[in-house]
Amino acid sequence: MKISYKWLKELVNIEEKPELLAEDLSMAGLAVDNIEHLGYDSILVLDLTADRGDCLSHVGVGREVATIYGEKLKIPGYGKLNSKENDLDISIEIEAKDLCYRYSGLVMEDVKVGPSPLWLKERLESLGVRSINNVVDITNYLLLETGQPLHAFDYDKLKGHKIIVRRAKDEEKIVTLDSVERVLNENVLVIADESQPVAIAGIMGGEESEVSDNTQRILIECAYFNPLNIRKSSRFLGLSTEASYRFERGVDIGNFINIVKRCAWLIQEICGGRVAGEILDVYPDKLEKKIVKLPLKKVKWLLGVDISAEFIKSILDRLGFEIKDFKNEEMEILVPFHRHDIFRDVDIIGEISRIYGYNKLPSTIPGNESVPIYRSLSKEKENLREFFKGYGFREILTTNFVDEKSNKEFSFFFKGENIKLINPLDEYEPFLRKNLISQMIKTLKTNENNYNKNVKLFELANVHFKIGKEYIEKSLFSIGCYGNIFGENWIFKESPVDYFYLKGLIEKLLIYFKLNEIFFDEANVPFLQKGNSAFLKRKNKVVGYFGRLNFAIEKEMKFKNPIFIGEFQVGELFRNYQSEEKYREFSRFPSIDRDISFLIDKNISYGKIESLIKGMKIDELTEIRLLDVYSGKGIPEDKVSFTIRAIFQKRERTLTDEEADNLRDRIVSLLVKKFKINFR
Amino acid sequence: MRPDFEDILINFKKDVEGVKDIKSFKELRDKYLSKEKGIIPNLMKKIKQIPREEKPEYGKDVNLLKGQITNFLNDLEKKIELVELERKSQSERIDISLPGIDFFVGSFHPVKIVEKEICNIFERMGYFIAEGPEVENDFNNFEALNFPDDHPARDAQDTFFVSEDRYYLLRTHTSPVQIRTMKRYGAPIKIIAPGKVFRRDTPDPTHSPIFHQIEGLVVDKNITMADLKGTLEKFARECFSADTKIRLRPSFFPFVEPGAEVDISCIFCKGKGCRICKNSGWIEILGAGMVHPAVFEKCGIDSEKYSGFAFGLGVDRITILKYGIPDIRLFFENDVRFLEQF
Questions:
Q1: B299-314 as b/e: b if 16+ CB within 10 A
Q2: How far is B181 from chain A (nearest CA, A)?
Q3: Nearest CA-CA distance, residue B160 and chain A, Å
Q4: CB-nearest partner of A49 from B112, B222, B252
Q5: What whole-number distance in Å separates Cα of residue A6 and Cα of residue A129?
Q6: Is it the case that residue B159 has pLDDT exceeding 80?
Q7: Per-residue pLDDT for A580 more than 70?
Q8: For chain A, first and last CA: distance in Å?
Q9: Which residues of chain A lie closer than 8 angstroms to B226, CB-CB?
Q10: Using CB atoms within 10 A as the burial measure, which of A65, A298, A477, B31 is most buried?
Q11: Do B164 and A28 touch (CB under 8 A)?
């Protein structure tokens, strides 16, 4: 909303310069975004909040200024109206009383339509309104002055000299002032004559009945339309105007007669002509002003400061409220018709506080306690992020919006229905993601394209899908990397990330979080390379996967580096999670190592050997370490050589060499029995 | 001392001069003191052949000679060890200017760093962290927050809808967490709720359709707007700097009354006026106000008995201010050269 500083000064006594006025208005809740200096005037550009429709005019803003500075608002009036002896015939009927609460009008004749005087043109143009002709300009001028949209019809174009305020018929058409043919429906309110709509109520007039150079007789319209209906129609038609903007926010229904008279007087003074009849005023259900009760103690209760009754009264009075009654420390307040944002006591306290000044309030800090709020897995999530950060991974944030392919091909965990945005920003990415991995892969690619080496990334975020009518949100954690584990230098010239790098990290993760039930298993994930990837499982449930990106995808996306990725369901990873942080006694006696080297069939995995040994439940066996794996020269083609180290220890005393040897022999004989191994 | 012994001593001292390292030292020691072949033990053995009357004198002189040589050798051994240590130190010297193992250090996303810092400030003041889902419904996101159906106030929050009836949507602010928490826990409440929010804004340097907010809500008996002001002042001082001031401007959010937009004194120019604060000396960082009684009523809390304040701040914006980041879109680009700076 643009406000002329000069115009404002005609309405209120203002001593402050525009800059200071702007500051004072902002601090009272009328945000001034900008000041345009024109030389002869300064224009304040206001960014008003949706509740302050009353300030969409100079009088409205003037009222605020008067309140802030304790000045009097001078509302412009009108002089003597000349009138004709015989009235011109006109009838007004409101059919849709739920959509039009009041309709006032006045007919004038002998109006000379022509260009506006310079002062009027200049004033409109400095506020961004194009000058059309003197009659239209006067209605626009009054819109800017009072906030009330007015419309002038060519009286002779109104068939039957009738105004009917009614709902449009389905498919009814009207050509509006902008020469566009609009197709209406029953939800749109129109102003019609005997045969057809002549204006879309509150939004835009019709071309046929517009005031033209040949017009001599006019009908001035001043009305109140249902704000919600105007808003809906404006949206339906894709047409927002200065008028609709104000009707949507509510205009001052109480002041129509004065405004119509002022309009007629300005037309008489500027365009000539005279009134040709009484003011018509159709107001079927006269509205009463709202009454709000304000117990004074509530002001301090909410604001934390004492404000005197006198001060409150003077603020309310200047803002146009009336104090109908004041007894037992309670005010009964009448809300003026121009305020559509005041319903209850707190709204009045809002008015008092903004004029009193928010920054004059004292500062205190509440010392209260809250009921405890439980938040699941918050600590675990934070530790998960810390863990990967500690190993050199960087956190990323990616968008929730994806294309169909990303959801279809990369959502390993969730098969629920895609959630599609009704109004996406990008029509190619209308879905909420069901996985994080597709964007992890894309982000790795972006970094590779940007020549970044040795990249390690992670993301913790929510994904969404639908099962039946239920919208489901799940928390996932993704990792991705390429390049070297250590930066390449003279110590580690090369240390490429690979399957075992990720596996090592995840093994440590499981130890760190004491997730003992989770084990590794061969993965079957379409976008991972089979035989180079693994599942993390708890019982039969896959809680995560990791490994090498499928070669075909690597090739298709033109990756230059081998890509390793992983994704975990946070909720499943920590299912029934209780971090046991109890001290356990450790053995203070030395341990004994026994190494066992043997050849075994290639098709027997190391995991089987290890779980066989662990399954023996030897108390003294504290650890098994795989020291060497070899196949190739010197070994039969179908065999692989393993060297494992068994570490034995007793809790209560030193283990003897003989005991260690016996334990080793037990392991060896079981391996021989089960796998027919050969010792080296 | 017998003259032949004196000769031995003279020869010994000559031999000492040939000692260069631990090896030649050991040879010298063996030559004189070795039990089997050593010169001194041999002299000891010879005592049997010495005439009886000379024996005491001979024995005394051998012991004297042995003592002198032993003492000398002990001193020499210490010196040789020092020399050896020095040699070893020299040989094992490394070029300490060579670079070490090039570990990688990870990082958190700057928005998450700032989010945590802010949450920590409030946690120190006794706030609990609360959460809510990103896909919300109209009731929690708008209706219960006193946004009338089809009201112009909804325009400011251009919404992504996920159901045809427009009942389900992506939350446009973290305020629905207020509703969820009040409905579930009742009063008193003191929470902070961080999270992702969504608005249908075309990306540009200052807008992103996905961003992060932190919601604060305090509900109890006797909570006033002065409490809100004091709390935000404390927050601003801890989040930015001890001399940061705040300013409250009246504004409108349907779920609070009175409502305010809150500025901090510009952290770049200390309020003098600069490009960042558009010469105003102030930077807007959050919206706040006293919880509207209509909101309490929707959540089943007695609005005559309880009052409360709420605020919502944009984490991305504060991150941009704190680190001087020129473009919000950098947050979602995830280029390592950006990420590694935090």
A1: bebebeebbbbbbbbb
A2: 8
A3: 6
A4: B252
A5: 17
A6: yes
A7: no
A8: 91
A9: 303-305, 361-364
A10: A65
A11: no
Inter-chain CB proximity B134 and A350 less than 8 Å: no
B249 vs A29, A300, A396: nearest CB: A29
d(CA A476, CA A486): 27
Cα–Cα distance for residue pair A597/A612, rounded to 1 Å: 16
The CA R_g of chain B, rounded to the nearest whole Å, is: 43
Mean pLDDT calculated for residue range B24-47:
89
Residues counted in chain A: 680
Does ipTM exceed 0.90?
A: no
Instruction: Please name the residue of chain A whose CA is at the shortest distance from the CA of residue B341.
Output: A394
Give the strand pairing for A564-569 and A470-482.
antiparallel
Distance in Å, alpha carbon of B322 to nearest chain A alpha carbon: 19
Residue of A178 and A577 predicted with greater confidence: A178
Name the residue facing B339 among A26, A346, A394 (closest C-beta).
A394
Place of tokens 């909804």: B154
In the predicted model, what is the mean pLDDT of residues B135-145? 96
Write down the pLDDT at residue A50: 86
CB contact under 8 A, B222 and A301: yes
A529: exposed, middle or buried (C-beta count within 10 Å: 0-12, 13-18, 19+)?
buried
Instruction: Compute the distance between CA of residue B323 and CA of residue B338 in angstroms, rounded to an integer.
Output: 12
Residue of B nearest to A424 (CA): B160
Q: Which two tokens stand for residue A408?
A: 């279809």
- Is beta strand B189-198 parallel, antiparallel or unpaired with respect to B128-129? parallel
- Whether residue B128 and residue A372 make contact (CB cut-off 8 A), yes or no, is yes
List the domains of chain A with CATH numbers.
2-69 (3.30.56.10), 91-282 (3.50.40.10), 294-330+341-358 (no CATH), 378-573 (3.30.930.10), 592-679 (3.30.70.380)
For residue A583, name the pLDDT band (cuts at 50, 70, 90).
confident
**Hey, are the CB atoms on B156 and A50 less than 8 Å from each other?**
yes
Residues of A539-558 as b/e, b for ≥16 C-beta within 10 angstroms? eeebbbbbbbbbeebbeeee
Token pair 């902008």: residue: A178
Report the chain B residue with the minimal C-alpha distance to residue A385. Answer: B108
